[in-house]
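Page header: ASSEMBLY MODEL / six components / 872 residues total.
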Amino acid sequence: MGSQERIKRVKEQRRIDILDAAEKVFFSRGFDAKLSDIAEKAELAKGTIYLYFNSKEDLYFSVLLRGLDILAEMFENAFDETLQPAEQLREYSNVYASYFRKHRPFFRMLYRYEHPKIRTQVSPTILHQLSNRSKGLLTFVAEAIKRGIREGVFHPDLDPLQATIVLWSSLSGILREIDLNENDPLWSPSDLQAPLSGVNLEELYTLSFDLLLRGLSA
Amino acid sequence: MGSQERIKRVKEQRRIDILDAAEKVFFSRGFDAKLSDIAEKAELAKGTIYLYFNSKEDLYFSVLLRGLDILAEMFENAFDETLQPAEQLREYSNVYASYFRKHRPFFRMLYRYEHPKIRTQVSPTILHQLSNRSKGLLTFVAEAIKRGIREGVFHPDLDPLQATIVLWSSLSGILREIDLNENDPLWSPSDLQAPLSGVNLEELYTLSFDLLLRGLSA
Amino acid sequence: MGSQERIKRVKEQRRIDILDAAEKVFFSRGFDAKLSDIAEKAELAKGTIYLYFNSKEDLYFSVLLRGLDILAEMFENAFDETLQPAEQLREYSNVYASYFRKHRPFFRMLYRYEHPKIRTQVSPTILHQLSNRSKGLLTFVAEAIKRGIREGVFHPDLDPLQATIVLWSSLSGILREIDLNENDPLWSPSDLQAPLSGVNLEELYTLSFDLLLRGLSA
Amino acid sequence: MGSQERIKRVKEQRRIDILDAAEKVFFSRGFDAKLSDIAEKAELAKGTIYLYFNSKEDLYFSVLLRGLDILAEMFENAFDETLQPAEQLREYSNVYASYFRKHRPFFRMLYRYEHPKIRTQVSPTILHQLSNRSKGLLTFVAEAIKRGIREGVFHPDLDPLQATIVLWSSLSGILREIDLNENDPLWSPSDLQAPLSGVNLEELYTLSFDLLLRGLSA
DNA sequence: TATGAATGAGCTTTCATTCAT
DNA sequence: GATGAATGAAAGCTCATTCAT
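Prediction written out in full:
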């Protein structure tokens, strides 16, 4: 029946509504956000949330997963086998920077994410998905590095996985630093000076990538 | 009066007792630790804590500051003007790794630190101290890099401050990744595999430093 | 129409299915059992229950009524006018013990029954039925006692109704005590000793009946 | 210090205030009473209750214990070794009836008591006290019966413990029946007739005791 | 200075009941 | 008749902070 079909779509839409609401609220308040605020923003009763998610934790990680999915899709779009390995890496790096600019709250959730205290009861399905998606991202990078080593543009002694981690973690570390400088209220009082004030942050990130790329080169 | 002096010392000691207790409790429970647990561990009444610290937040950041002081002192000890710039940087890098190994909870507080929800009411004094100490650390690194540029071992176009941030943020990012792999319960379910399993983490860090150094080199 | 007839039977069967399910669930969880569990066990939707019963309370008392019906039927079967009054009473006593053994959860519902908090909204029909059935049971006993008085085997000054209540309430009290000793978790901690440990409970009940009978005798 | 002494008394008084409030509220609402109602009646904040009792359950059983203590004291006062065994038993029986009349809600809590769902976490101390007090009561009765057997007024084949249980459980069962008839809302709708209407309940209890005593006699 | 009793807002989760389809 | 999604009140317990002593 088309009606069954429609009901299913309505339910799915409701799920998305809740995720949308939760996203906004978690963005501004973190995991400590109140469930009632989420319900209110979703224009639903508190109890209704529990028809779609088992717990606040589950909801939180589901939001996280959506954030990761966005990045994953951006990576997929950036994949281009005609590019030189180094250029492909630069592309991924740009994608990451772009994600950082457009989805800052997701970047924070993913990179500096607050750990809900007990993760014991989060549905294993979601944990799996999170894990798989994370690995998927790194695989894109690792493939480009492998190709670079094979083609002789990257240093032959490099272990591709290690190099991937080094590159990615470093870029993440830089972005985190930029985020901190741009936004962290720790530095915000007017009589304090953020350590990087006066530094062009865009340039900093580019520089980092160049520097790391140089390090990888044969 | 010597008596006044003694009273002052007693007060200072009390402050330290509280910090010692808070440190232990925050380490095991994070910011969500209960003030009553801290009071109990310090063998003081809850109310007494408030005679020495304005709020739980203040206490938390004071603990943080002590953690930063430890690292600062390790840096001071590692400073050796007879070393070549690259070797001096390696020394700092080793110090950081050593801090990571010996004071992991501090590393986490400092790098991935949980944000107490409202930082509005933390005393400005502490924020200043935190800020100054952080800058102090980076200054050690920046000086070595400046020297390296001057002496021609590092690339002449480098901006010393930028390079410092890149180096330091990258190493921090790597350590964060290592910490995640060693400890994060997200990866602990037996059917998940931590992304770096099989990777020698010590080696990874060394490799990173080498790679970054290569990037800096002239 | 025979079809109307059939529909009626189907409805009646549905009612019974719900009662069967509710019985099992109330037995294991008491009145705090969840309606959704009952619906699930009955393989019906939650809302459907409300087509057959006005409220959870109503359902609870309907289950109770079935339990009472079982006992009533056992009494009817035990009725035998050829027996001597004392032997007839013993028969009823045995029936009660047998009910206690075979339908313990019903015994508890009936005797120590949990009171749903508000009984205001239970349908009067059910209350009537419960009341009538209870009286019916006692009538069996009362008749035997009347006969005993008439035949001179029981004390002539006895008021039959009073004697009935005394006999029945006493036996009920004994059974309740036995139930408590066999099951009450209050006594279960290993360092506590149930007051009747070491007492043969079957014997206790028999003894009680004998003692009460002696009390009734002329 | 007298001040310490006074503080202790104040704390003890506060505990009693809470118990007084809880008693009233539990009497009218049973275990499902709201903690906030208890707090309100005690003119204290909800959190304060938890400074004196670990949980609602603990509070409930503490109230229960007070009720049992009252009965225990009445028994102690009724103990009189100059009485004949039968008269001593009658005295205890009267005490029980008196308790039933003056402390009906306690009688219900004790005899038909609602079981808080989880009794697992009630402090063992309280469970012990409850258990001990209960046993203590029965001991009074058992002693009188032993003496009666020894002195030849009760049947020589009686097992004193068994006889105690039989006597006590029977009387309890009678009182429960009386309570039900006097108060149970199940019978209250005007068009129902309580089974014992027209029966003099005081007389019923006396009759029961006499009947049971006859049963015990040599 | 030190205490620790008291506060009370705050929060997640449950579940009987309703009602649009 | 049957469904089951939605509701929303309800409730026990926690804990940072205050303040009278």
